[in-house]
Amino acid sequence: MSDVAIGLSGLGILFVLIALRFHIGFVLIGVSFFGLWLLRGWGLAWGSLGLIPYQFTANWVLSSIPMFLFLGYISYYTNLTAGLFSAARVWTSALPGGLAIASIFGSAGFAAVSGSSLACSAAMGRIAVPEMIKHKYHPELATGTVAVAGTIGALIPPSIILILYGVIAQVSVSDLFLGGTAVGIMTMVGYVLVVFLRVKLNPSLAPMRDETMTFAERVYHLKDTWPILLVMLGIFGGLFGGIFTPTEAGAVGASLACLIALLRGDMTLERFSDAARDTMTATGSLIIIAVGASLLTRFLVLSGAGDYLSEAIIAFGANPVLLMACVILVYLVLGMFLEPIGSMLLTLPIILPVIDDAGWSLLWFGVVLTKLLEIGMITPPVGMNVFVIKGVVGKLVSVGAIFRGVAWFIVFDLLLVVLISIFPGMVEFLPALLK
Amino acid sequence: DTLSYASGWPPSARVTPVFEKYADTIEERTNGDLSMKIYPLSLLNFLEANEGVKNGIADLATMLTPYFAAEYPRMNMLSEASSVMALEGNESSVPAIAYAGMMTELVMLDCPSCQDEVKRQNQVSLGVAMTPPYLMACMTEITSAEELKGKRVRAGGAFWSRWVEAMEAVPVSLSINETFEALEQGVLDCSLGTAPDLDNFSLNEVVKHVYLGAPSGMFPFPTNMNLNRWQGLSEEQRAVMLDASAELIAGLAWEYHLTGQQALEDVVSGGNELTEVSDDLRAKSRAFLQSDLDALAGAYKANFGMEGGDELVQKISALAPRWIELVEDVNGPDELAEILKREIFSKVDAKTYGM
Amino acid sequence: MKFLANGLTLLEKLASFAGMACVVLMMIHVTADVAGRSFFGHPVPGTITVVSSFYMVALSFIPLAVAERLNAHISVDIIFERLPAWMKRALVSLNYLFVTTVLAFATVRTWQVAVDKTNIGAAIQQGTAMVPVWQSYWLLPVGLGLMALLCVTKLGLSLVNPDALLDEQGPKTENIYE
Ligand code: NA
Ligand code: NA
Asked: Domain tally for chain A?
């Protein structure tokens, strides 16, 4: 068996085992270890197993992941963001589908303190879905909107996906964050337009509420938005005011969120330890996959299978349009089944050389990739955001109904992906502007 | 037989072609018996390099020994002694190139304890390249020793942290990848680094004032090879490797020299200030360098139980005048390689070295 | 048997507590460093080294067993759900056999590395301080070994009582990341 054949067989076995519900992280480690053993002998495989797990994890930039997770969990458990939704609903009450639009703004706000899209969906789902159902919104619209709005969480910083991508692709995390912000805001505006259009076309989806409020009353409702605004102000003020670096922002933000929750009387020992426990398990199950992917990279490099696949993709997509279509298709298919971080870590060793070879910007690609991975969070059959909303609404709405509600937004998402592929400047203008 | 070289620089780095040339040279001179594949950042990063070569994940790698303080005390003490170049006040335009020769000569020909140190890591040394001397890149103007006091200064190693403390400023530890943002956002006032770093990490796009002449001191980047692989080669192959390594070290040192000069020109053409540090700061810095050098061997004995440091510092200092003269008029990597071969690599016995 | 199970549960609780403490300590340590540097001109020495070599390593490996107990490790259900029951049972056992094997290798290997690092007293120089980091290498065999023990018991359970682990899907707690 040639080296490349060993590499490709390894990849095949890897996919089969993952499909059969083996633990992804340990499949990656195991297949890479046995693959290296077969390829270059015991010494190299044994050496790699001793070296990579420690070296990959003992990483300063990576430490921002648990800290941003903690910030998100603290905000979630202490209801730091509840006021944001009620303010948004007051201000959007005159719009068709106002509550749905408010939930999108609420998600975008929560996105600024949470690194993940699931957290966003869960937090906003708990607050906004019951409110919409109460106001006779169509359940498909209500649940679908919150499920997709969650995906903004991984685009607007902080973002776990963008941090991991930055560490692996050696791209500045700050630049990625700025690019993500641009696309996150476009996504937010686009989702609002989708809701607006749908309700315009079919007003029965979202009956108008008869809440007439004076301007002063509306301003009054802003009073409960201060906790999250203060956290955001603290993070962005500190970043641009020269107090701390992006890596340190997670820890300072989490401290700030704890302090605010404490002052508001929302902090209990139980909530605090729940947030710490979830941060811990999330970090553990996340990093072990990244360790496995790091070992897989060595296996693909040494076997030559990585080069082989990259070259095959380059040869196939000699035309840039075809190449991009190919990349989009690959991630849409992977996104149907796999969770985003797994599929990102699995594919980066192969896809990064392709992007580099095509002369495309790695910064731009990081943001496009995040957008593609996030679409996977809402596509059937495995759409984690949809499942989280299902968990919130219980028997009230079927999974199929939520997927139907999501479909409209996916059309917009694909349109946006095509747009930012044709005009990469849409991603890069913000990082360029602030340089 | 194919050797693997793990470089910690990305494929786009300016040194990557130097490694590619090394690989080609070895293949040519062994008539294809021995070839080499270069893995730029895909196999091992700088932090993984030592364990990686020790375990044979890669056969060779560039080893940033200061990252492995407990493993390489001698190598690190010798590179910290590079302050002798500034103290000599030498007029050579290329002190780093001279010091690369001095380090390589001492390690390969005249320091059995250094050889043991590398051997304990299951490796053999194939020569040491040095970065240009450290300079000070700042956001604010520093016109006197007084103005540096209390400033937040990034220091990437022990030697420079001691310097920052001696200047009564605040040493800040940050990863080099974060330095650009930290300077831009004002987390840092200054960063200590080499001229090539200004280019490699885009620092010359953000700093306003670049000061030469302090803190000085250089960073080593030796090439090490896995010992079992080395001993498994034939004597002829080892001879070819040694010869080609002289060219590699010369190529790396020269490329860094050129990158540094270019980066400094970019500072000026970017409308920023490039100047010498003020006289009082230079004097204060020199005073620190002298006292630090005097205490160096003692500190390494206290921290790492390392014996014989004094003798090593004396030996490397003694090499300075000869090497400054040797490289003074060098104007290309080929010429430098010839000098390294004549003075060092031709005297290394391929039959016994590292065996 | 009962005694062993109780022992394992106790170890998991300890691991859980240690992991949570790391989250909180990391937050406090980094915040203190930022505050010290910005407002008092005195950063906390060695922060980067302590955070990356200790808190990060601990947080990555110590909670592995806890995550396994909560079924929080990431896997894909999609094809599995559609398989006949006998295949599911076989796959559950095979998964634990595979994971235990990988963990056994990894535990032994990282143990060796920890012994080596202890012998040379591995340390990282940050600023003028030498921060000893050899202790942190022990976090790997401890965390990996604990999860290996848990997976052995799960492997045993899946052989003795095949249906017990069949319906374990996804995390029991609200697991809201990514
Ligand atoms: Na976010
Ligand atoms: Na999906």
From this structure: 2
Q: What is the pLDDT of residue B92?
A: 52
Q: Are residues A185 and A87 in the same domain?
A: yes
- Quick one: pLDDT band at residue C155, thresholds 50, 70, 90? very high
Q: Which of A303, A328, A352 is the last residue of a domain?
A: A303
Question: How far is the C-alpha of B40 from the C-alpha of B17, rounded, in Å?
Answer: 10
Determine the Cα–Cα distance for residues A276 and A254; give it in Å rounded to an integer. 11
Give pLDDT tens digits for A254-296: 999 999 999 999 999 999 999 999 999 988 988 898 898 889 8
- B122, B228 contact by CB (below 8 A): yes
A279 belongs to a structural domain = no
Considering the domain boundaries, does residue A276 fall inside one? no
Q: What is the ipTM of this complex?
A: 0.87
Q: What is the mean pLDDT of chain A?
A: 87
Residues 6+ apart with CB under 8 A from C137: A54, C110, C113, C114, C117, C118, C122
Which pLDDT band, with edges at 50, 70 and 90, does B90 fall under? low
Question: Do A17 and A138 share a domain, yes or no?
Answer: no
Please check whether residue A16 lies inside any domain of the structure.
yes
**Residue B87 sits at the chain A interface (C-beta within 8 Å):** no
The pLDDT of residue A387 is above 90: no
Q: Same domain for A48 and A64?
A: no
Q: B70-90: b or e for each residue (b if 16 or more CB lie within 10 Å)? A: bbbbbbbbbbbbbbbbbeeeb
Per-residue model confidence as pLDDT tens digits over A357-371: 888 999 999 999 999
**Set of chain B residues whose Cβ sits within 8 Å of the Cβ of A47:** 51-52, 54-57
Residue A396: count of CB within 10 angstroms of its CB: 14
Residues A69 and A214 in one domain: yes
B11 prior amide bond cis, ω within 30: no
Compute the nearest-CA separation of C120 from chain A (Å).
16
Distance CA B32, CA A249 (A): 53
Q: pLDDT tens across A96-153, in order? A: 888 899 999 988 988 888 888 887 888 888 788 888 888 889 999 999 999 999 999 8
Three-state DSSP state, B308: coil
Extents of the domains making up chain C: 2-160
Q: Give mean pLDDT, residues A209-233.
A: 79
> How is residue B193 written in tokens?
């680094």
- CA dist A314 and A308 (Å) reads 10
Spatial neighbors of B350 by CB under 8 A, at least 6 apart, are: B235, B236, B238, B239, B242
Instruction: Show the tokens assigned to A221.
Output: 């409702």
Token pair recorded at residue A390: 């299902």
State which residues have CB under 5 angstroms from ligand 2, the bound ion.
A 335-336, 376, 379, 382-383
Picking from A47, A239, A245, the nearest residue to B56 by CB comes out as A47
Structural domain of A400 = 59-267+304-433
A118/B159: higher pLDDT: B159
pTM, entire model: 0.87
A353 and A212 assigned to the same domain: yes
> How many angstroms from the chain centroid is the CA of residue B267?
22
User: What Å distances lie between residue C12 and A113, A285, C18, C129, C164, CA to CA?
Assistant: 30, 15, 10, 34, 20
CB B160 within 8 A of CB B66: no
Identify whether residues A227 and A238 lie together within a single domain. Answer: yes
- A278 and C67 in contact by Cβ < 8 A? no
Same domain membership, residue A21 and residue A127: no
Express as a percent the part of chain A with pLDDT over 90: 36
Do A295 and A420 share a domain, yes or no? Answer: no
* DSSP-based three-state secondary structure for B224: strand
Q: Do C74 and A285 touch (CB under 8 A)?
A: yes
Residue of C nearest to B161 (CA): C127
Residues in chain A: 435
Closest to B336 measured CA to CA, from B114, B120, B130 = B130
